[in-house]
Amino acid sequence: MLAAAGRWDIASAQSLEPQLRVQDPGKRNSSICLDLADMTALDTAGALLLDRLIRRLRGQGHKVAIVGARSDLCQLLMDVQRITNGEPRPEIPEGPRFPALYQLGFVTVSLWHGVLSMLNFLGLVMVTLGRLLLQPSRIRWKPFIFHLQQTGLNSLPIIGLLSFLIGIVLAYQGADQLRRFGAEIYVVNLLGIGVLREIGILMTSIIVAGRSGSAFTAQIGTMKVNQEIDAMRTLGLDPLELLVLPRMIALLIALPLVAFYANIVALTGGAVMAYSYLDIGFVQFTRQLQIAVTPSTLFVGMVKAPVFAVVIALVGCYQGLRVTGSAESVGLLTTKSVVLSIFLVIVLDAVFSILFSYLGV
Fold first, then answer.
1. Does residue 146 share a domain with residue 132?
2. How far apart are CA 264 and CA 200, in angstroms?
3. Does one domain contain both 313 and 341?
4. 25 with 112, same domain?
5. Backbone angle region of 236, left / alpha / beta, with phi > 0 → left and psi within -120 to 50 → alpha
6. How many Cα atoms sit within 13 Å of 223 on the Cβ side?
7. Any long-range contacts for 335-340 (C-beta under 8 Å, 24+ apart)?
8. β-strands 6-8, 39-42: how paired?
9. For the stretch 100-127, what's the b/e string if a residue is b when 16 or more beta carbons lie within 10 angstroms of its beta carbon?
10. Contact 307, 346 (CB under 8 A)
11. pTM of the model
12. Are residues 21 and 123 in the same domain?
């Protein structure tokens, strides 16, 4: 048996080479074990010396077997032997012939798997919700009230300010166009129908998606990184019951109320603009609004709120549970949560618009 120990690198190659030349195992055509268990370092120069030694011994008729070597050292030695034997380097597989088509297919398949995963998550949440309704004592009231305050009450200032400004902008733009035809009074119709049917709930949902949806993902994702969710499962607790359902139910209640508040504030901003720019008094504005708006107008906008709330909560919690063990993953999935929530809200709003148009509502 021959043993190679220590460092076999370019620094020690000059001293090792003379020692290898005088190595003589004695009896010819014998089996030799080359023990590399005590070798601490190996580079290309050292691997080349070992390869020369193995070639010389095999040339003398010996059977050489390498034992005790680490996997990385064996891989380096095999690479050097392949090069010295003149073997061709492994071919690098060519890329796709049509990169754009390949990318399109990859995105399509990824999107399909994402949709199936989201539907699976929705099913799990619905099953958990059903179990919770059968056992109301399991409802976590403190987290529910906390998230109701966070998603509802604490969002009123920013939503109120933006809704007021949106009402002003809509009234100003409508008045600028209708004034050409002497129909300034119909600014009230434009504002009332536009805000109550579309703009109010859509802008509220987008703001809530950016504010509360991202918070859901960041909170649950941070718990995932800190292995708190794994600890819950170890204790026999259901993360969907403790983390997802309180947020979803709180947002389900808060979003319709916040959307109604945003509608009132936006109409107030439009009334202020109409009074200052068109000299339409508040009493006249209210009367024209009663003529233009029917209960079905408010219903069309408000019926979207629960659907948007469920979508925002599910996407936020789902992305949070997908976080891996790194802070970078939290940031990436939080961004993805906001983008996906807003995208789905706009798509669903378009679907509702087509449906209501088809039904004549």
1. no
2. 9
3. yes
4. no
5. left
6. 19
7. 337/213, 337/214, 337/216, 337/217, 338/209, 338/210, 338/213, 338/214, 340/315
8. parallel
9. eeeeeeeeeeeeeeeeeebeebeeebee
10. no
11. 0.70
12. no
**Alpha carbon 219 to chain centroid distance?**
13
Q: What contacts 192, CB < 8 A, 6 or more positions away?
A: 267, 289, 292, 293, 297
- Tell me the three state secondary structure of residue 62: coil
Q: Where are the beta strands (DSSP E) in 174-290?
A: none
**Same domain flag for 166 and 98:** no
Select from 138, 153, 168 the last residue of a domain.
138
Question: How many domains would you assign to the chain?
Answer: 3
How many other C-beta atoms can be found within 10 angstroms of the C-beta atom of residue 296? 11
Per-residue pLDDT of the chain (361 residues; tens, 9 = 90+): 677 777 777 777 777 777 766 666 656 667 777 777 777 777 787 778 777 877 877 777 777 777 777 777 777 778 777 777 765 555 555 556 777 887 888 888 888 888 898 899 999 999 988 988 888 888 888 889 999 999 989 999 999 999 999 999 998 888 888 888 878 888 888 899 999 988 999 999 999 999 999 999 999 999 988 888 889 888 888 889 889 999 999 999 999 999 999 999 999 999 998 888 888 888 888 998 888 888 888 888 899 999 999 999 999 999 998 888 777 888 889 999 999 999 999 999 999 989 988 888 7
User: Do residues 269 and 171 make contact, with C-beta atoms less than 8 angstroms apart?
Assistant: yes
- What is the domain extent for residue 133? 93-138
Indicate whether 190 and 287 sit together in one domain: yes
Are 260 and 233 in a shared domain? yes
Q: What's at 243, amino acid-wise?
A: L
β-partners of residue 8 are 42
39: helix, coil or strand? strand
Nearest to 207 by CA among 273, 248, 151: 151
Same domain, 175 and 114: no
> Quick one: which H or E segment has residue 163?
helix 156-178
The two three-digit tokens of residue 177, written as one number? 């166009």
DSSP 293: -
Taken as a whole, the chain contains a residue count of 361
* Upper half-sphere CA count for residue 26 (Cβ side, 13 Å): 5
Cβ distance 253 to 148 under 8 Å?
yes
Q: Do 208 and 248 contact (CB within 8 A), yes or no?
A: no
Structure tokens at 61: 């008729």
